[in-house]
Write the structure tokens for this entry.
Amino acid sequence: MASERKASSSVELRKMLSEVEVDVVGVARLADWTRTKLEDTALRLLPEARSVVVFAMEIYSEVLDLTTGERVTGAASMNDLLERHQEYFAGRLTKAAYDISKASRKLGFKALPLPGQGCPRDARFFEAVFSYKHAAQAAALGKIGWHSLVISPRFGPRVQFSCCLTEAELKPTDILPVALKCGSCHICLDNCPARALTEPDDGAAYSINKFACGSFRSAAGGCSECMRLCPMGRKSKRL
């Protein structure tokens, strides 16, 4: 009886995901990712976790196209506009994570919401305690490209995420209906102002010098060139 109640509650929680006010929702079932870093980091945060719910919002290209990898002292920076833009969506994404977490706990499942911005990070390795992009890829929301960003079918790499770990065992998202390919244009590699991106070795999704990227972003007051220039998901060829 207890197992039947849990199964029924999982179905109810899955239905709630369709009502969350974000652009896309995906689910990865940890049982499908045993002995991987995704499972390891999820279980460190919530040992009872069975599923990872990933929420995504589109970053508007109209805002992103105004940004630059350079900053002139004293001049207005459109990078600041992008930062405000992302802060707004971070709030929406965080709310979604907390809404599903609350619903999950109400149904008797432990849950841990992870925010749309500000996930704890180990500064020694420029690494978050939980990788949203790898969770998003596992949840079939996209594929990680050479720029180390998730390329989604609808929005290309112009997406922002939050996550919720839950004890509920949810049905995973179906695999991507379209094949996403990256690696033929070299635009991100050729235009990275930090020179942090290189062609990955065979079998690797990407190769990035996190320290070079992070240092440049800090000095320049932000940088989103790889995201801005990527042609994937563009409705037009205008950059």
The mean pLDDT is 90. The two ends are 57 Å apart (CA to CA). The helical segments are 2-17, 37-45, 61-64, 78-106, 132-138, 187-191, 210-220, 225-229. Residues 2-229 form one domain.
